[in-house]
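task queued by scheduler; priority normal; single chain, no ligands, no partner chains; default sampling; output format set to structure tokens
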Amino acid sequence: MSTAETRVSSKLLRTLRDLNTIDLLRASGLAGLAKTWPEVHRLFDGPSLVLARKLAVFDERLGQGEIRGAALGLLADLGTRVRFWGPAPALSGPRLFLANHPGLGDVLALLSLLGKDDLKIIARERPFLQALPNLIPSLFLVPERNSWTVLRRVESHLAGGGAVLTFPAGRIEADPAWADPSASWDLWSASTAFWARRIPSLVVQPLLVSGVRARAFVDPWAARWRRNPEDRDWTAAVLQLVFQLLWGRPRTSRIDVAVGETLPGTVLAGSEGGLRLKASLKNMAAVSRR
């Protein structure tokens, strides 16, 4: 155990362990069984605690201002490095970064590129995110209902010259390294056009992340029993994470982040904005396929 891990409070570790166990039960389809037999929780305490320690160290480094270092450190624990190509990300003024969501490591790769004090991330409201005290100030958490307040808070942050990273799909998507991701682009949230109309100086920059999912976990046999495709993707992503943490395999080797050209918000606010965005994503997807 590292020195950083020994400094983490036992209360935080227990909280993260229990929340991780809930996620693992959901991914394995055993959440219902665990309600009847609570002892089932203990089967997952081992991998849940390993992940809890890594997350707690990540959060501690965030608190020390090491945003990029925290992200790269956790990626290193997963046996993963990151490669970027394309233009540099926008550095100042109202910036909205749009990214796909192929797995559980994409946000770490993006933090290692975009990590600045003024960056905030839009994410679904989840208990484990709320349990990380140094991460929570950097998040706009979207509840299941009544998300209008979040839209306004994001608008205020952007209007003040801040940066926001959002995953418009709101769920795990196909990994561009192994499959055509374009089907999900039609389902991306319309919030980008909303902010573009309200903030004339907004700059929008698309990012396409690929290689997050190891090839063996794109459609693993262990997840095929999940009937809902979204549940299947979630199970596969969680399985990969557990294997990487406990056994160091599979080594995904590299996550690629393709950076697109910046688009003026005035373009995204118009009727042709969606076509311009998809054209940019299509170009990045073409070079992301392995």
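post-processing summary
- The CA atoms of residues 113 and 259 lie 10 Å apart.
- The mean pLDDT is 90.
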